Amino acid sequence: MKTEHPFLVATILLAVVLLVSIVLNYLLYERGRQYYLALSAARLDPLGLNYYSTAADQMELTNSELTTVVFFGDSRAANWPSPDLEGFEFINRGIGAQTSEQAAGRFRHHVKPLQSQLIVVQVGINDLKTIPLFPERKESIIRNCEENIQQIVRWSIDMGAKVVLTTIFPIGEAPMEREPFWSNDVALAVDEVNEYIHSLEGEAVVIFDAYAILVGEGGAIEPEYSQDILHLNATGYERLNSELVKTLKGLK
Hints:
Blueprint lengths: L3 H41 L9 H7 L6 E7 L1 H4 L9 E7 L5 H11 L7 E5 L2 H4 L9 H21 L3 E5 L18 H15 L5 E4 L1 H5 L19 H18 L1
Parallel strand pairs: 1-2, 1-3, 3-4, 4-5
């Protein structure tokens, strides 16, 4: 019995190690698969023009008596649920992982046909998160992001819409696997671009300070609002919508 017990323990430990290895390899494979799927899709349709059907745009406008609001931008916009607000109609034109360059490039294709009265813009983090990978291009990445946001605002105003321009959400803590490709420069760049966003406030541009609503101690997002380093959970969006409703009512 004494000789069997160590052998049994070793066998169990070996089985556990093997199982953990299988699970980790599967997770790595699946993450790599998703990455290459997204990369290939972006190469086939760099701006995401085929993501939304142009023919379906007009079909979404169901009632001309309602104020039409379009959520536009990256995954943070794409995941933003419509608030419960009488008298408004909400359409989402966000696409995950897009930079401000991609969003600006598809604006006329995805937003202009809707002729909406209000456009909620949330974009920029996918530009700024590349800074740790290209530190020598930090300033050009920030300037390009600001220029694209300004362009989206200008086009929105030109089509007769008012803009609810949201500040870029605060970020969460970087997970261990992302730390080699991350730095505090991302958070500093978010602050810089948000300062620029505030400068765009005007008669047709209302600044919705999402950053101030969501931020916690140390400049990171409040943990209760965070799904991961970049995205909000349902509680985070509920918090935003409780304030967004007030803003939209004031603009109607």
